[in-house]
Every structure is written in C-alpha cells, then in structure tokens.
Write a structure and sequence with these properties.
In chain A, the strands form 3 sheets. The first copy, chain A, has a 7-stranded mixed β-sheet with strand order 3-2-1-6-7-12-13, sandwiched between helices. A 4-stranded parallel β-sheet of chain A has the order 9-10-8-11, sandwiched between helices. In chain A, strands 4-5 form a two-stranded antiparallel sheet. The termini of chain A are far apart. In chain A, helix 4 crosses helix 5 and helix 5 packs across helix 11. The longest helix of chain A has 22 residues. Chain A has 11 helices and 13 strands. At the A-B interface, helix 1, helix 4, helix 5, helix 9 and helix 11 of A face helix 1, helix 5, helix 6, helix 10 and helix 12 of B.
Chain lengths: ~350, ~350, ~350, ~350
C-alpha cells in the first residue's frame, strides 16, 4: 500500500540536512513508491492552516541540492509547541500540530533533530499517536548512543581550516591566536579541531581549567618552542569566576564573543604576548557538507525509511561500528554525550602535549 | 631509560603521513624523553651506508608540517628487500636492513604502511628480532581489523569534490560523466565518493557488473529523470572481457585511464549520450589531510609510542568503535578488507537507487 | 517602455555563467522593469517549436545560484546554425532561429560565449536584424580586446590546486609529475597555473619546444635541486612529430590524455625518472566560480543591460584597466588573444627559471 | 659583479608574501648569481646586533613554501624606527637600522609593505642612502598607482567564502546575517566580497550610510523577496554617532567586533528580524594565497630584481593593464586609493540592486 510520510528538520541547522531529505525521498519513492511531504520550519509547518508542506520528489534534488548547507524546509527556534510563544505569553499548541499531521493523512513522521528537538518530537508523537523515527543531527555531537551525528565532522573541518589559516599569521606576528568554536555544552568540536589544527591549548567545558596552568603552557610554548601559540576554546567554557559568557546577557540573548574575547584579554595580560581572537560563528553551520556527512546522511535517510516499511517506530537511527543501527528513542533522548575525559581523543590530546587546562 | 626509536613510511604515499610522524615525535619526546629517528625512503634508508636517517624533533613540525600531504621521509617502490632489484636481477638484501637497524642502536621500529608493506616489514622484523609496531595507512582502506586507515577519507573527499565539479558541466551539456578513482583491488573510494557525490552508477571490483544493466540505468536516468548522469568506476573494475586494464600493459607498467576510458567509449556507443571521463589520479594522494585523517593519524601515533613504552610489540594500532586499540599484526596482515556486499554502504547505495551494475 | 530581452549561454561551459544570468536579470528587472527570457541550449532553444525559453526572475537566483558552476540554461555543441547537422547532412537553419527570436517579440539578445560562438551569433544577429550584446566567457582566455573573460581565473585556480596536490606526492616518490590542462589553442591556463603552482617546466602552444631542452632542465632539477619535478603542458602542445594529439583521432573525437600521456612516456624514458601524468579535464569547467569570476560576471551583466538601455548594439563588454568598457563586436571577434611571448607572465616565468622549452 | 640584496616584509601579514620572497630569490640567484638576505621582523632585524638575517636560497623554497600564508621572515608592529618604543618612551633609532644595512654590505633593499610601511621605508632609505625598491602588499588594496596589491584577492576569496557559508544558515533560520570584514579605512574587501557573495547591503567607509535606508532595504528584502538577508560591513564604517568602533577603546587597543556587533543589535531592533553577525578577523590574512596572488607576487618579485639590475631605484613595482610596471615611490606613497564612488564596482553593486546605504 502506498504510504505517505512526513519529514521535518528541527533545531539549529547544520551541514547535511538536505542530504538526509534526499535520501529519504529517494528511498521512499524509488524503493517503495511512497509519497514524501516536507514540513516547513520544523513542526511549525503543521501549526499553520493550511499546513505548510511541500511534496518532495526526485527532481527536487537533481540539481545537486545534497551538496548545499542549510535545509530547504527551514527550521525554527520559535520554540517548544508545548509552551509556544503567543504574544508575551506561552501556550500549549501541541494538539494543533498533531491535528495538522493527521489532516495530511500521514503514516509516519521522520524528524531530523538534535537532542532538544528530538525530546520534544518524541513527546509530541507519543501524545498524538504518531509513528515516529528520529535522525540525529547536530554540530555539537552530543547525542548519545550514536558514534556520530550529521553535521559534526563538517563543523570540525571548518574549525580546523580556521586554525590552518590562523597559524601563519600567528607565526608572522609572534602572536597567541585564540579560536572560539561552537559546541553548546560539549567540547567535541573544540577537541577534534584542536587536535587536527595543531592547537597548543584546548579548553572544553568537560575539563575545568586552571588559568595558571594555561598561562604557564603558553609562556613555555612561546618562549622555548616557537614564537606563537594556538588556543581553541569551546563557547561554553566558563570564565574564571564560573560564569558562562554565552548566556550572560540579561535579556536572554547570547552575547557574542564571550569566552574567546575574555580569554584574549586575560592571556594578553598574563602571558605578555600579543593576543588576538576569532569567533568562528555560523560559518560552522552553513557550509557544504563534507563527504562523510553526506554518506552518514544518506545512510541514515535510507535506513529510516526502511524502519517505517518494517513498522518499527519510536526508534532513532544511529551509527555504530561502521553500520547504521537503530536504538530506542527514549534511551537516545536521555543519553547526553559530553566529551569523556578518558576517551581516546582526550588521551591523544594529552599525548601530543596539548594543554587541556587541568595539568 | 631513554629509548631510541625509528620510524618509516612505506608504500604509496597518502594524506596524513606527516601527521603520524608528528604525533610519534611529540609523544616520544614530550611523554618519554626518547629520541626519534626518521628513516628515509621506506626501509631503503636502512640499506644505505651510512644509513639514511634524520632525527625528528619538536621543531621539525612547528611550521605546520602536519597539514601537508606526502611524507618528509619519502617512501619507495623500489621493492621488496627480500627480492631487491639489483641490475636486472633480484637479491635478498633483508640482512643489510636488519644490520642497519641495529647499527643505529634502535629499540623499536614504527612502520607506517599499507597491507603490502606491513607484511614485508613484519617478516623483516621477525627475522631481525626487531620490536615492531605497525600503523595502517592507505587510500584504499583495504586493511583488515581497523575501521579506517590514515589517508582514506581524504581521498574520498577529493573524489567527491571532483563529482561536485563534474555535475554542473554534465548538466550544462547533457552528458554522462565518468570518474575513474583509485582504490587498488578494493572499491571503497568509489563506493564512498559515489554516494557522497551523487553518482547514478558505481562500479566496484567486488560486485561484478552486467553492461546491459548499466546501460539500461543510464538510459533511464538521462531520458526520464534529468539530462545528465554521473558514474564512478574503481580502477580495478574489469572490462567486459574480464581484463584488468590497470595491469594490461605488457611491460608491467600501469596503463593510464584504463577502465574509465574503456567505459566512456562503451557508454557513448551503447547509451547514445555524449560521454566524457576523468581519471583523478595522484591528486587523491598528495592533497592536504582532512581533519579526520589528522585526528586518526595523531591518535595512532600517540598510541603506537605508548605500546612501545609498555613493551607490547608485533601489534598494529587500529580504530574500533571510537577508540584506538591494538590488534595482532599477523592477523591484520592476513585480513584483507574488500567492500562487503552486505555492508551498510552497499545497502545505502542500493537504497538511494544507485546502480551497482548487478541489478 | 518595458523591454523584453533574451539571453543565452553558448559553447563550452565554464564557471560564472549563472552569475552573469543573475546580474543581467537583476539589472533588467530592478533597474528598468524589463522582462528577461533565458533561451535554452544556446541558440538551439530558438530553433525548437515552441521556442524553448524560461523567464528569469529575481527568485530564480535567491537560493544562491550565482555560486554554482555550469549554466541553468544549458549550452550546446550541436553546431553552427548555418551548418546544422540534420541526419548525416548539414543545413542552414539560421532563419528559423531568427524567426524564433522575433516570435518572442524580444528587443535585444545578450549572448554569453567564447570567440567561436560570438562570431556565429554576430553573423546571425546581423542577418536577422537582432540587437546584440556579447559577453565574453571562456576558460581559455583567448578572446581579444578584454583583459579577462568569465571562467578563466577559476580554471587557473583549479589547475593550480592540482599542482599543489601533486607536489607532495611527487616529492615523496622522487617523481616527475605532468599535468595536462585545457586551454584549446592557447596556453593561458598552463602559463598562469604553472607559475602559481610552482612548475619547473611549462609547455604552451605559442612557444615551440625542443625536447632536449626540456629533458636537460628536468635532469638538472631532479639531480641537483630537489628530488622531483612538476611540469604543466597545455592540451594543444604538439608532439615531437608536430601532431596535435587532441584531434588525432580519425573519427573526430578528441583523444583523451593526448600530450600529457605522450610526454610522460617520453620523459620517463629520456630523463630516467619515474613519471606520472594527470589530465585534469572537465573539473576545470564545472567548479564553483571564484570571487573574481563572480565579480567580473556581475560587472559584465550589469553593463550589458545598460548598453541595451542606451541603444548601443553590436558591442562586446570587456574588462580594461579596472573598468568595464565596451568594444566593437566585429573587432573583438577578429582579435584572437594567444599568449604573447613578450608578455609580463612569460617574462615572469623565465625570470623564475621555469623552462618554457625553447631555451 | 655579484650583488648582495636584502629583503624584508613589513606591516600586517597577508597571503603571498612567501611567494614574493621566492620570486626575488629565484630571479636574483638564477638570473644574476646574486646573494639574497632575508631580514627578520621587518626593519627590526637590522636593529638587532648581530643583525638578524638569513640567507635565502633555492632550497628554502623547494618544499612548496610559496603556497603558505604568512611570511617566514616575520613582520613587526613594533613601530616606526623614527619613533621606536623604548620602555615608555619613544626614540629615533633609524640610524641603527641604516648602520645594520651597511654592516651587511648590501647593494639594495627590497621592502614588501603596505602604504604605511612603504612611507617609513622610503624615508629610511633616503636618509641612509639605501637603494630601495618597494613591492606593494596589503589585504586592504589601498595603495595607489597599482591596480592590485599582493594579498588582496585572497582576502576577498575568504570573505566571499564566508558569505557562501552564511547564506544557507540565514535561509534556514529566516535571519539577517552580518559579516564584518577587514580593510582598514578602505571598503575594497567589503565591496568585492559583497558583490561576489551575494550581499543585499554593503556598507563601506567611503559612502556614508543612512540607517533608515539600510533598514528599509532589509525589510523589503526579507518581506517581499526572500526570507533572509546578507549584509557586509567594512570594519572602518562608523556607527550612527560617527564613532569608529575599531579604535574606540581608550587604551588604544582595537575593540573586537565593533561595527558588526553594533549593526547586529541595531538591525535586529529596527528590522525586527533575527540577526547574527560574524567578525571574520585574521583568517583573512593567514590563509594560502590564491593563484592570482601567487602570480602577482611572482611577477612583482622578478621585476623588482630586474630593476635593481638596471640600477633603477626609489621605484615601486605596480600592476597596470596586464603588465608589471614601475612607478615613482614617492608618488605611490602619497596616493591613497579608497573606493571610488564612481568606479565600475560601485556601479555594479548598485546595478545589482545592492544597497550601499546612501539611497
């Protein structure tokens, strides 16, 4: 029987989302003869009346859409449907979304999201009796039970490229260069890019730092070893007073250049070396997906459709030991994956002599 | 006690070799205070008298050498030391290499190589009582017991980038574009890049193809779906008469543009569409390592030195489920890893509707 | 009065064509309120009945089309409308094209093309009383009266990048690496990329070479200076017997890997160094336009529309001394621009010690 | 007679400096048999005792140094030798530099610098009777009498690439994205990258803006045309109160994220669209030179040495109409090249419908 499935992208965008949409569409149409409806702006498209959806077809993707960053469906930060902003107030509008889904006569929903949106989607689908499959995407790589999520390695590539570009200018001017990268509460991008880009110091939220240790390392590096230093700091690293500068603004807006700016001032003063910082920002999100993210996105998309064909729901697709597998959605949602201080990469960083701020 | 270790790069070069050298050097010097000697041109440096080695130091790497392709030690195809070309003859010169090693007073040897050179190095070290650790590198990804080897994903990036560039010109001219990629007897680069780059047809040596099926697919694609098609073919794919065109030359030299050229002529004739081909060649080897290969190289290098510190030898470092581990060298050498026709990526390719030539 | 203008892309595709379409469309609509019709597959779209055109609008370009290689209008090699292939015969179908143009009620035609298509379009427009403006594009940079044409510098970037990737693998294996680049009868890509990519030898059709001089240089380089060499050869360079290998095939098809392949065999034999070659092929055409080509494309497109508004026709836009200007179309068409052996770049190449084969 | 020449890099680093050093070295050694001495850290290397210089040889460059950003000689911001910081004081130390030059027995000096350092070097050489040739480099492109300077187009590439990456994420989230780029007091990078990267608004210091016009344009774009907007702002653009935020800090340190940050807050408030900003920073300087900058650097380097051979001094090499020429140094130093509001590129920007803030 011909099924109709919906698909949406939720939360912050990243590289590889269009590749997931393509894989789902190709598999559903070519493999099963189903119809695929792309829901606009996360679940918000199901709130609108008429519902805001577009049928995804083979020709949607023939001009090479897979290669582009972002998502043609749009995404939204407008907020949790269970507590949706209405004027200055908040309201539970989840019923309308469920209604929208059923108005379309959809058999199942595929949600591409990070851990936040995945939890909300799970709750929504449980409430609305919606057959749901989750596909993990996040540049932060903080979703548990999967080795990797769509968008992460591309973000690492971009941050690494920035370090490659900062090194020659640091060396030409005897400078300490600080790169602030994204990653929310996790240090995965900072750790990976720091190793790949030849950083001397990497600060991540999972490993508390001691400023004297950082300063000592930078002095040693710039005085004995070479005339410059590179330092990567994850956006969620706290300042010396324990404040998270990305959320320090009173109005709830994220401050820009929080910890990178802070560190640059402190390092310049304490190390006595000319110090500059760069906040990489949204270029980590919007760029073209690298080969790995496209392969991952393609594998996830195909497998998600196959799960629907088998009637397996409430699952999240995951990457494990060179294979796509599926895991329980509830388990995945409740497993947060920070950087493990005993992981191979932390040991690699220490083994290279990179200072992580704690010793 | 201060150890002295040797390191060499062997076989075809790939991206990430200098990153391994750096990681080994940093770990050995900073972690243990050892000395590291780089042996030039594979094991050949130990054949020369005086032996051709260079001490690797921290400052060898401070200008950013990790980011460059190739290997500063050079490598060699001059051949198997057990059957070394001497004039028109061949001779067992393995004793001289072992002698060279011991003349240097080295405590251990790290060999970075593919499956061919790893097997030879293993035999050499066994014979010469040399403490050996292997680090897997190959753009072909055909070494068993490790999820990935240094250099592979960068080669996939380059091949994918080529497809990204071929698509617009194919679409502008209503053409079938064929990309011949490396990979020796394995189809890993072709399969990965084909999925990532949006190929319509991927031919790999592990899956025999039927030309009528290929032609049928290309006709369908170019007539019904879009005005062009992309096809990837691994260099070791046989022609319709079962010949391997990379080794068809009588003098033992590899012919250039073997199967890609062959396919272009056949497809143009049988499909009736203008067909062009590109043989990517050595740009897949010499480019800068991507972030993933640098991380892998760094992790392998650090871990290899730690194995020496622990006195564990005859091991190959490997990547398994997000960690570096070590496996028995003999097992690794005897485990060839072709593309598994039941693997996730083959299923992904089929799920996307990519024709693999067999159905 | 609201005008209606047509635009077409003709001849081999290159990077930057979509950027020209965008600039013309933006200028015509936003600046003058005109309508723009994109004609498909070169002038062929005017041959079809109904004529094959698409209205170009602002929204055609909002998703970032400017950044993509190729042309959304397609182009064609189907041939000269004055001698159009009909079965095995040829026929003058120019009247039909002129008719198609007037059926659309167009006020003017903008043709983006190289010197070949520009000459044909000029003849066509003269015959059909069509108001014509030409915009020069070609990766070959062989159009006279303009300092640069759309697509050239991007092709140089790609060829340079290939040399950057070939160098490390050449150095790792003591090899001579030969890169064959496009350029038709001109050596501009070879000369520019050879300088930018650090070649030791550059052969271009404008400067006849002596093989002994080439061999002498390569021996000197690989024996005295470094262990490898890089050589760039333009596709139209003749072999030692004076044959042009790109057109050697009897059936009129271009042979692949002509002079690059030829040179690799000769050099390997005569220099005695391991030699490999790469034929860059269509990746030089289909890639994303670099910043310079997008700026050039944008300036040309805007200016071309302004010329139509002023009622100036039979002009080609051109770049001269930091400005867009317009030149007489007939003059441009008859001015072929090969590499001038006395130009700055030839002197630069000689000044760097690059061998151009003649001394 | 064998000459000895000195060369130094001065002022802020940019892409292409090592390519100039290479061209000078190759030309001087291969063409004339001279010796070349690289002076470290701008003119500072001549202040040190012993003077801090390194002989540059062919082999300095054989591993591909031309391709790397930065300068192996280092550069310095330590300041004007006529007013050199000594403790908290300033002192004229120009005599010591002149002395250093003559201690080395150098016949001539090549200085690679921007307009600031070129003026100082000119004064220094006049005073010290030093034969001087200047080579223009600057990412700001503000040096007069030359069409382009080394480093500029690479910086434009990087800024354009950032816009390419910001667009998809802007489109996915319905955002206004603001990119702050370098350029000192000139808007060249902003104007070029804004055109190439598809900006809707470009603000440059040469064209005063009216905030209402900017806001009107962004409202129009985001409401009628597409769901997002891109805006580029040059670092020297003043805020609405006429303050230059790059120099607003009381201690003389440049504030980070000045006008970009300011604009983001104003736009978000006045346009009512979610707005994010990125300050590109030093990645514009340190990256690899593109092909054009390497060609320019090579041509300038060769020509500068030829000028010395001819005994022509107090000249600056320049690019004019496809050729290297030389101009009077004093004239060049006194010709500042801001963006000309009547230039082709300004007209191109206006022609595309880009808002420059003034109408």
């Amino acid at each position: 029987m011909t099924k109709k499935i919906g698909i949406l992208t939720s939360g912050g965008d990243c590289a590889g989302l269009n590749a997931v949409l393509r894989a789902v569409t190709f598999r559903a149409i070519r493999g099963y003869g189903w119809k695929v409806y792309g829901i606009h702006q996360g679940s918000h498209g199901l709130l609108e009346r008429p519902v805001h959806v577009t049928e995804l077809k083979i020709e949607t993707f023939t001009a090479g859409l897979m290669r582009f960053g972002g998502t043609i469906l749009g995404t939204t930060n407008r907020g949790n449907p269970f507590s949706y902003p209405v004027g200055d107030d908040r309201q539970d509008r989840s019923d309308e979304i469920v209604e929208g889904f059923h108005m379309l006569g959809l058999d199942a929903l595929i949600g591409i999201g990070g851990d936040g949106s995945m939890a909300i989607l799970r709750r929504l689908c449980e409430k609305g009796n919606i057959n749901f499959i989750g596909i993990p995407k996040t540049i932060d790589n903080d979703i548990g039970l999967t080795e990797k999520s769509v968008g992460f390695m591309t973000a690492v590539d971009i941050a690494t490229e920035a370090l490659d570009r900062l090194q020659p200018t640091a060396a030409s001017h005897d400078r300490v260069m600080i790169l602030e990268v994204m990653g929310r509460d996790a240090g995965h991008i900072a750790l990976n890019a720091g190793i790949a880009g030849g950083a001397d110091v990497i600060l991540i939220p999972e490993i508390p730092y001691n400023m004297d240790i950082v300063v000592h390392k930078l002095k040693e590096v710039t005085k004995r070893e070479k005339n410059f230093a590179l330092m990567v700091v994850a956006e969620a690293v706290l300042d010396e007073n324990g404040r998270n500068l990305t959320i320090a603004d009173v109005k709830g807006k994220r401050r820009y250049g929080g910890i990178g700016h802070y560190m640059a001032e402190r390092i310049q003063e304490m190390v006595g070396a000319e110090t500059r910082f760069t906040v990489l920002g949204h270029v980590q999100r919007g760029c073209q997906p690298n080969a790995e993210d496209r392969i991952l996105a393609s594998s996830f998309g195909v497998y998600a459709v196959d799960l629907i064909a088998e009637g397996k729901f409430n699952r999240m697709v995951a990457w494990h030991n060179r294979q796509v597998v599926d895991v329980d959605l509830a388990d995945a949602v409740s497993s947060y994956q920070a950087v493990d201080p005993n992981s191979t990469l932390v040991q690699t960083a220490r083994g290279l002599g990179i200072c992580l701020g704690d010793k």
